Amino acid sequence: MTNEDLTQKLITEKFLTTPQIINAFKSIDRKDFVLSEDKDRAYEDKPLSIGFGATISQPTTVAIMIEKLQPQEGDRILEIGTGSGYMTGLLAKIVGEGGKIFSIEYIPELKEFAKANLKKYNFKNISLFVGDGKAGLKEYAFFDKIISSASGDEIPKSWKEQLEIRGRVVAPVAENLVILDKLSKRKFKEEKIHGFIFVSLK
Ligand code: SAH
């Protein structure tokens, strides 16, 4: 199997539908983001361990989350839970050079893993941070979109505050994937999709 086969499978199964997102999945090779001993399993539709209790998310899950987020060229996006950097790379490809991805990882070693994995792509629109993503990144607010691969009990208040009006958060809450739209400063609309399991927020 190749990265092209994996992308094609996600298209056939209708998890991927948006041309810019499909293009990103074709350009960012999942093999570059798994541990060396798992290179031959990189194109399986499964999460894989990347150490420190973290996983590179299942491709189907990544596809669903990014399709729900609908990133646009030029967007400023806050990502929580960099992990392998795979989603970071996909997002950076979609927003292009006029956009920017700010990604926070709790575990310093994983931030370094992501940095090494992303190196070959030469992105100039990614900033990686070590810290607790629950606080967001106030000094770089506001964000057009916020996406988290680690689940909590609720969407942190800081994310709601640091989101642009008309912006969107896609994040796991308990076993749901929550899609939260900011309608005005204090008004939000929420949709939930049931049946996901994610790494928990620390
Ligand atoms: N998108 C990543 C998913 C990694 S799993 C990938 O596909 O590779 C979720 C990640 O969230 C883990 O790396 C974990 O260390 C990180 N994490 C957990 N709690 C966090 C927190 N409070 N702040 C930032 N990152 C966190």
Number of helices: 6
Q: Kindly provide the radius of gyration, computed on alpha-carbon positions and rounded to a whole number of angstroms.
A: 15 Å
Instruction: Indicate the CATH class.
Output: Alpha Beta
Give the uncertain stretches in residue-range form.
none
What CATH architecture would you give?
Answer: 3-Layer(aba) Sandwich
The portion of residues assigned to helices is 25-40%
In this entry the ligands are:
S-adenosyl-L-homocysteine
Q: Look at the structure and give the mean pLDDT.
A: 97
What does the overall shape look like? globular
Quaternary form: single chain
Provide the CATH superfamily.
Vaccinia Virus protein VP39
The number of domains is: 1
Number of DSSP-assigned strands: 11
The structural class is alpha/beta
Strand content: 25-35%
Strand order of the largest sheet: 5-4-3-6-8-9-10
Order of helices and strands: HHEEHEHEHEEEHEEEE
Termini separation comes to 35 Å
CATH topology, anyone?
A: Rossmann fold
Task: Tell me the major beta sheet.
Answer: 7 strands, mixed
Q: How would you characterize this protein structure?
A:
It is a single chain. The chain has one domain: 3-Layer(aba) Sandwich (Rossmann fold). It contains six helices and eleven strands. The strands form three sheets. It has a seven-stranded mixed sheet. Strands 1-2 form a two-stranded antiparallel ribbon. α4 links the parallel β3 and β4. The structure holds S-adenosyl-L-homocysteine. S-adenosyl-L-homocysteine binds next to β2, α4 and β4.
